[in-house]
Specification:
By secondary structure, the chain is α+β, with helices and mostly antiparallel strands. The protein has 2 domains: about 30 residues; about 80 residues, no CATH class. About 25% of the residues lie in helices and about 35% in strands. It contains 1 helix and 7 strands, in the order αβββββββ. The strands form 2 sheets. Strands 1-2-3-4 form a 4-stranded antiparallel sheet, with no helix packed on it. The chain has a 3-stranded antiparallel sheet with strand order 5-6-7, with no helix packed on it. The protein is elongated, with a radius of gyration of 20 Å.
Length: about 110
């Protein structure tokens, strides 16, 4: 009886560790795939649209249906802002206006001085 309890406890522990690892990998920026990049005309800022991985695959042409994240980066590549997006294909235009960047339905950010 004690032996089967120990084995069950070990299996539950291993299962929890694997679950935590899968969730950590899913949130890690290392596994994002670049979907689109929009650079401000003066080159000082860029918006990078990153697609989250799809573990179940998909049909051809469905890459834009994946959820993702949108990053606002400065000229040195430092992350200034970020926003989640339900489908990366929603980000098809970035509007640069002076000290502001706007992405319809996704984000509206002020740029630093």
């Amino acid at each position: 009886m004690q032996k089967s309890y120990a084995i069950n406890s070990l299996l539950v522990g291993v299962g929890l560790v694997l679950l935590v690892l899968v969730l950590a990998v899913q949130k890690s920026p290392l596994f994002f795939a670049e979907y689109a990049v929009f650079v401000r005309p003066d080159g000082h800022y860029q918006v990078r649209v990153m697609r989250k991985p799809s573990w179940l695959g998909g049909m051809p042409g469905q890459a834009g249906d994946n959820p993702g994240v949108v990053w606002l980066l400065d000229g040195q590549g430092q992350l200034l802002e970020q926003a989640d997006v339900e489908m990366v294909q929603l980000v098809d235009h970035v509007d640069w206006q002076g000290k502001n960047v706007s992405i319809k339905w996704v984000a509206d950010w002020d740029l630093p001085d």
